[in-house]
Design brief:
This is GGDEF domain-containing protein. With about 900 residues, the chain is of the alpha+beta class. The chain folds into four domains: about 240 residues, PAS domain (Beta-Lactamase, 2-Layer Sandwich), CATH 3.30.450.20; about 120 residues, PAS domain (Beta-Lactamase, 2-Layer Sandwich); about 160 residues, Alpha-Beta Plaits, CATH 3.30.70; about 250 residues, TIM Barrel. The protein contains 29 helices and 32 strands. The strands form six sheets. Strands 24, 25, 26, 27, 28, 29, 30, 31 and 32 form a nine-stranded mixed sheet that branches. The protein is rod-shaped and about 230 Å long. The N terminus is likely disordered. Bound molecules: ligand LFPHGCPZ. The site of ligand LFPHGCPZ has 21 residues, from β25, α19 and β29.
Amino acid sequence: MQEWPHRKRNAWGAPNIGIYNHQGAGPQAIDRPMSRTRSIRTLLIAVLLGVNLLAVVASAYWLNQSQQQYTQRAESNTRNIASAVERNVSSSVGKIDFALTHLVDDIELQLARGHGLDASGAHDIFENFHGRLPEIEGLRLANERGQVVLGNGVDSSKPVSIADRDYFVALRQSDGHPLWITKPVWGRLVQHDIIIFARRFNRPDGAFAGVVFATVSLDYFQQLLARFDLGPGATVILRDQDLGLIARNPPLTDQPVGQVGNRLVSPEFQAVFASGVDAGSFYTPLSPERQEGVFAFQRVSNAPMLINVGLGSSDYLAGWREERNKTYAGAAAFIVVTLALGLLLWRMLAITTQEALRNRVYLRNASDGIQITDTSGRLVEANDSLCAMLGYTRQELLGLDQRLWLACWPERTARNAILLQTSLDSEPRSIETTLLGKAGQRVDVEVRCSHFYLSGKLHLHASIRDIGERRANAEKIERLAFYDPLTNLPNRRLMLERLNRALVGCGRHQHHCALMLIDLDNFKVLNDTLGHGVGDQLLVEVATRLQSCIRLGDTAARMGGDEFVVILEELDESALAASQAEGVAEKIRLLLRQPYRLNLAAGTQTGGLREYKCTSSIGLTLFNDQSVSTDELFRRSDTAMYQAKAAGRNTVRFFDPAMQAAVDARAALEDDLRHAVANNQLMLYYQPQVDAHDRILGAEVLLRWRHPQRGMVMPGEFIPLSEDTGLILPIGAWVLETACAQLKAWAAREDCQHLTISVNVSARQFRQSDFVEQVLSIVLATGANPHRLKLELTESLMVNNLEETVNKMEALNDQGIAFSLDDFGTGYSSLSYLQRLPLKQLKIDQSFVRDLLVDSKDAAIAQTVINLAQNLGLAVIAEGVETQAQRDFLERLGCQAYQGYFFGRPGPLQDFEKLLFAEAL
Ligand SMILES: Nc1nc2c(ncn2[C@@H]2O[C@H](COP(=O)(O)O[C@H]3[C@@H](O)[C@H](n4cnc5c(=O)[nH]c(N)nc54)O[C@@H]3COP(=O)(O)O)[C@@H](O)[C@H]2O)c(=O)[nH]1
């Protein structure tokens, strides 16, 4: 597969329209947007995953850092608090110790004076200290025997001894005056847990004299710790040096770990404590109080105590958790948004891909050519149809240099409008033009173009439709509508348009015009004898000749059949116009009578080229204003043409009123003829037909019209008219009925029984589909002997539909009816049909008989016909025999039957019968 050189992406989407290969575009080319889309989708998924993963990792990192910061801050806080608590505790211890030391000094001073202990003075001092130091619950003095003798709350009536107390025992045995601080002990006087701070005092000789001791309620420590309210999850604990619980805030009296003396601590605490450091921090996932958090540990500097401050993670991480939740929410929102964006992109990509795919399919299957050009007219895109239209491959078309590409658009206006965008319509527009292909072929196209912006640059899109076929069809339709398909001459419709145009033109410019009606003489005979194919050849040749006789601007048209029309325009303004028109008409007449070479193979079984002569009758009328209608003009030229016919054909006639009279007469004759049968105006004349011994064999019945005003009208005047109008059918039927009735009448008479009657049957009569039935029913109805009936047919009947003709003749022949071939030799005589027809007789036409004696050709024809008849086993009769000499000559030629004035003119029945009886006499 080759790539298109101008391949690039465009603004419609990933795949560029029209980017596929002319030669090799197949499923792969179609799938290209799909594979590209797959890559983009993979990239999209990777980017989405990457971005989200990054967001998650960053969030986690940030949260971790934040948590550490919160934890560190909590550790720092706990240390600070522990330190503050320690300062408070050590301060209290210091104050207590100060009081004890002062008391010891004072007591020892009193003892040193030798006056003994001033009980009331000591009592005042005790009270004084006790009042000033809220830490101290009780300040007392015990003698060397351990009896508490002085101090607040001491009742001499209820002696109390501390001789068994550790601190008493220890101090009694100690050297110096160390401060003794007990663990929490049960206060014997106060009846609750206390801590005792004690110092010994000596006699002047240094012997043990007793102890002063201060009791501090654990509540004091509890209240001291309570000052450090750090939150619900925070704990501040004061322990003794064996980790026994002294006080804690918040109190936890309902749990073992909250009981005074409880030594349960976390392993982490245990470890820090065991390390011997004075202060430290640690993290405990699970403290004895089932709490997770950071803890600080601090030894009290002047007492065997230690402070333990803890912050629950629920407290110190509350802010962090809030941030964490926000971060989670932000990350979730980010993921959702990016996923939504990704999904949107995915769908857009899918839509774009589908559109691109659809565009490709549309383009690929578009029957129209499609192109995109830039503002310089340069071809940017083109589809297969355009390439095929112009005969280029895609590479060639897109590789054309500008000059060659513009050359494909030979029409300047279209080129400027479509390629160079001389005007930019907002609406798409259509232009019809012609393209020039690679091989120089011209392609008629309709271009529909519109402009658009691609990457901000103006481009022009053109859809190009090959309208060659449409144009050809339109022309074809126009030709069918306005032209005669056989001759390609304008038909009646177009001719009428031209005639109207000529009428308007001559009215405006005062020149003359002429309307010429041309009818071919005896064309019907040609058509009937040689067939329509041959007739068509003649018509085509006539059309060609007509066109050669007229000028550009004149019109030669075919009206139908053998009728042609010529319109001559812009003839002279004066009477000269008549001679101009006549000159053209004469030229036409002369040219049309020139021999035609017709191919008989087109219409007959025999074939071969044959020379044929045909003349024409031309009727002509002039006009130079619009006062006459086209109908009137036709009527006039028609009249003139009939006059030309009447004048012996092969003639040009101008219209004149006399002509019109003839036409009117013909119309009147037709009108009269319609009533002739009903009015009993028809009658039959009988002309004898004789044998070689001049005996009457029978008669040919010849129609006569006895008109009340016109007198006797000969068949030559009305038979052609009756054939043209179809009146021959009822007339023919009447003739046959009358003839058969006469046969029936003769059958009853012995002297007439042998007589035959010949009846002329016209082609139109014979062609009736029920002709056989008609004849047989007449024969049956009249009771005539069919063996006495002879039907005379003309040669023209034999040419077309020979099969049908034979069938009908045989059907009648089977019933005894005989056939005679009339006017033999004048038409197209063919041996082949003669052999097939069930004929009884050939009739030598009178035109050969007339000059028989002087014209050797006629004699030869007569001889030929006689020989032919003999050879075919047919009888032969000569008509038009007017003289003895003719009769004798014919006899010598072998003719054995005759008809003609020499034997009897056609006459009424009575005349015929008289002749018959005269012969009998
Ligand atoms: N379809 C029908 N056609 C008919 C009928 N009756 C007559 N015709 C046809 O009319 C044509 C003219 O007929 P007509 O004027 O009667 O002429 C016939 C004879 O009078 C004439 N004839 C006979 N003998 C002579 C002669 O010695 N000299 C001479 N100059 N004329 C002669 O020939 C005509 C007979 O022709 P044909 O029929 O060919 O034998 C004519 O063509 C009739 O066919 C009818 O009822 N139906």
